[in-house]
UniProtKB/TrEMBL annotation:
This is Ketoreductase domain-containing protein. One of its GO terms (molecular function) is oxidoreductase activity. The keyword Oxidoreductase applies. The keyword Phosphoprotein does not apply. The lineage of its organism: Bacteria, Pseudomonadati, Pseudomonadota, Alphaproteobacteria, Rhodobacterales. It comes from Pontivivens marinum. PANTHER family: NADP-DEPENDENT 3-HYDROXY ACID DEHYDROGENASE YDFG, VERY-LONG-CHAIN 3-OXOOACYL-COA REDUCTASE. It holds the Pfam family adh_short. Residues 5-189 form the Ketoreductase domain. InterPro entries: KR_dom, NAD(P)-bd_dom_sf, SDR_fam. Belongs to the short-chain dehydrogenases/reductases (SDR) family. Keywords: Oxidoreductase. It comes from the Bacteria.
Length: 260
């Protein structure tokens, strides 16, 4: 499948989502970008249209709410079925689960899981009826194991990775593929919001959002099931950890998520 003309990207004004939007624009593709902050979306729309001569639809929406998801999908339905869907919106949080604010944990589930499922169900269904399309869901290497001190975030990414692979198997005969992108630590504002700066996991530094987006975009175009930008970490998490005693794994991950 050639590079698609129209990509819908959530979480498009920051981090990996922004990197995906800029990468697609640089390839000459049109965009539907969505995020919560309207001013940032409009500024990005103006910049990308002026720089690349493309069409950018900017749709402010809070995908952590049913109303925001419905508003986005209703507007997208008036444009056209995207050729690419990239679900990048999401957030994490640090600390013992029972000591964290329950509403925040539930909001994480709403954005990291519910929004991905709802948007993918609608757009993926339209793609399947058309007979073509590519979906990329931004997951994480966190999805390969339980995550003490980030219990809900790790579990949400395990869902995304599993869900994406199942969807690919269901949709591939109808011309649609689904790729899970599972990066390790990425140098974005995500870490600050998730309050993981200072953990052992982040001290060694991470990949750039641009390099992660390039890895994911290439894997999506190739129709791969799972893409991991950090091959060593991916090997450890996918192949070595399942062979290790479970308690050892839990303790190792907890140490990596702890702060001095």
């Amino acid at each position: 499948m050639p590079i698609a003309d129209l990509a819908l990207i959530t979480g498009a004004t920051s981090g990996i989502g922004e990197a995906f939007a800029r990468l697609h624009a640089n390839k000459g593709g049109d965009l539907i970008i969505t995020a919560r902050r309207a001013a940032e979306l409009e500024a990005m729309k103006a910049e990308l249209e002026a720089t690349h001569g493309i069409t950018v639809y900017a749709i402010p929406a809070d995908l952590g709410t049913s109303e925001g998801i419905d508003a986005l999908l209703d507007i997208v339905a008036t444009i056209e079925i995207p050729d690419i869907l990239i679900n990048s919106a999401g957030f994490g949080g640090h600390g013992p689960h029972v000591l964290r604010d329950l509403a925040t944990e539930q909001a994480m589930i709403d954005l990291n899981i519910k929004a991905v499922v709802t948007v993918t169900h609608r757009i993926g269904g339209a793609m399947a009826r058309r007979g073509s399309g590519k979906i990329l869901n931004v997951s994480s290497t966190a999805g390969f194991a339980p995550g003490p001190l980030q219990a809900v975030y790790f579990a949400s990414k395990a869902f995304v990775t599993s869900y994406s692979q199942a969807l690919d198997q269901e949709l591939r005969p109808r011309g649609v593929t689904c790729t899970a992108l599972a990066p390790g630590f990425v140098e974005t504002n995500f870490a600050k919001r998730a309050d993981i700066i200072g953990t052992a996991f982040t001290k060694a530094g991470g990949a750039s959002a641009d390099s992660v987006a390039q890895c994911g975009y290439k894997a999506m175009q190739q129709g791969k099931l799972v893409a991991v930008n950090d091959r060593l970490l991916g090997f450890v998490m996918q192949w070595m950890m399942p062979l290790m005693p479970r308690r050892f794994v839990l303790e190792a991950i907890q140490r990596s998520q702890s702060k001095d």
